[in-house]
Amino acid sequence: MFPSTVLLIGGAGFIGSHVASQLAERNVRVIVPTRRRDRAKHLILLPSVDVVEADVNDPAVLAGLTTGVDAVVNLVGVLHSRSGTPWGADFDRAHVALPKAVAAACKAAGVTRLVQVSALGAADDAPSQYLRSKAAGEAAVRAGGVDWTIVRPSLVFGDGECFLRLFARLLKLFPVMPLAGADTRYQPVDVRDVARCIVHALGEPEAAGQVYPLCGPTVYTMRELVKLTGRTIGREPCVVGLPGPLASLQALALELAPGPTLMSRDNLRSMSVDNVCDAGCTLPFGFSPTTLESAIADCLVDFTPTDRFERARSKAHR
User: Fold this and answer.
1) Which letter does DSSP use for residue 97 in this model?
2) Global pTM exceeds 0.85
3) For the domain that residue 64 is a member of, what is the CATH number?
4) From CA 313, how far away is CA 305, in angstroms rounded?
5) CA distance 318 to 305
6) Is 180 within a domain?
7) In angstroms, rounded to a whole number, what is the distance separating the alpha carbons of residues 92 and 76?
């Protein structure tokens, strides 16, 4: 039976917002905890969604949130962390300690289903702290004594937010793109497909105890993704793949640059292995994945030449 009340941890984020929307379409009551309510204001108008200010890292608060719910989805993740052993403190807090606490709270409250959103490539022997900490979080969920499902998305794209937007911003400024990890392969997956798999897993008894990689239908190198972005926004970039030492130097420079971190040396270590599903594997439950080509225009709508021209005409009242 499908759960009637779902606690959505990390529900104000990119993937979580789509999960909340799809659950609301099913008239499921959704509780979205957030430290700042204004970060989830886009969810407040959704029917059956309750946004509450709460710190899920507080065990007492987490215990209260899990009381009376049927299922929990944990989407919390961070891309960057201070370094440490075996991984940085920020990775430990978000990827290891929180999943462990969520599983314990679920068991104590009698919650029957827990879906943990991890990352494709998570493994104990992965090259990066990010991926190793994700694997440790998965292990904590498995050992938590509840019926769990783990999903591992590849790179996620979709309208409103998209990893390709960073490339688009850079290509507007620079015709030549020096690129670390240019030949690393990825299998990008649409955020709506990721959300659909998470929601379906909540009501699928056979999903309990399963780990599902989530991928789109096509494999691309990072070089190909940059060129696809360029074609979409009307640019023809020259992509220069950086060898190891120069790639490390680029990652260090971006890591130390002021403002939001665009890339780190740990990100570069993640890029040393391909981020693809096994042959023939894309989405579970018989779902057909969305192609990147069919959605990329919406993903980069602010950067396409036609849209810029139309906005200019609008401002000129023409």
Assistant:
1) I
2) yes
3) 3.40.50.720
4) 12
5) 17
6) no
7) 12
What phi and psi values does residue 210 have, to the nearest 5 degrees?
-110, 150
Asked whether residue 261 is domain-assigned, the answer is: no
- pLDDT tens sequence across 34-52: 999 888 989 999 999 999 9
Distances (CA, A) of 156 to 98, 133, 159, 206: 22, 19, 10, 25
Query: For the chain, what is the domain count?
Result: 1
Across 73-77, average pLDDT: 98
Task: Say which amino acid occupies 217.
Answer: P
pLDDT at 310 (0 to 100): 47
Q: List, in order, residues 6 or more apart from 257 with CB less than 8 Å away.
A: none
pLDDT over threshold 90, residue 63: yes
Is 265 inside a domain boundary?
no
Structure tokens at 95: 């990827």
How many C-beta atoms lie closer than 10 Å to residue 243's C-beta?
A: 9
Distance CA 237, CA 219 (A): 20
Q: Could you tell me the two tokens for 265?
A: 């040396």
